[in-house]
Give the backbone structure.
Amino acid sequence: MESCGHGIVYIVGAGPGDPELLTIKAARLIREADVIVYDRLAPIKFIERSAKPGSELIYAGKRPGHHALTQDEINKLLAEKACEGKTVVRVHGGDPFLFGRGEEECLYLTKKGVKCIVVPGVTSAIAAPELACIPPTSRLVASSLAIVPGREAAEKKQRRVNYASIAKSVDTLVILMGVGRLGEIVRELLSGGIDPETPVAIIENASLPSQRTIVGRLRGIVERAREQGVKPPAVIVVGRVVELRDRICPSNP
Ligand code: SAH
């Protein structure tokens, strides 16, 4: 293994967007970093406000169908900055290892002999339902949950997610990155025998002032989402837990 100076890269989860949902550790690392490489879903204003004078802020965000920097370029950039002896903070939205590229970054850095430390974050998979007052599990109606991607890496060769069979095996299904494929996912669930009356919630921009929750049933949710102009980022929750929302904390937005 090559070795690379005294630099270090922190792979940091920054939560769903509200800076108050950053961990104290994430906030401290952002304040102390020499270089911050951040994603589209990171709390950008907090980063700009808190970074120390002279630090370098690099936007690596990807917009749908658009790459600001390729993953390869991000990996190289992180290694390069760390090899200059800098403390690098790579900020991911949510948690860095849950449908994030944090794992690939660490793998690359470790191969290059760069020290890499993972700092978990509050994932949108759990925070978004809870911010909409939907408990992912419930003693009353749901003991199990699965978190699945709505779309998968193009390079993945194995079988894709079987939504209907997972939905049959767990009480709550949480889908990330699913807005663009909502129609197909719902079709797969229905043709796989999931009850069309199953409640569904879509939580858009969770934790941000623009947070919005659309509630419906599997039958009809696609039209509803279209009417309401639902856009990413959003988390889709399928299961009876959605019905608890109004009973538990009706004051949540
Ligand atoms: N590592 C991230 C997930 C990255 S995948 C995490 O742990 O949260 C990106 C997906 O996360 C988005 O397509 C969306 O489904 C979800 N997401 C991230 N932030 C969100 C937010 N503030 N509100 C709703 N969904 C969000």
The domain at 8-119 is CATH 3.40.1010.10 (Cobalt-precorrin-4 Transmethylase; domain 1). The first strand starts at residue 8 and ends at 13. The pocket of S-adenosyl-L-homocysteine is lined by residues 16-17, 41, 92-95, 98-100, 123-125, 128, 176-177, 203, 205-207, 232-235 (CB under 6 Å).
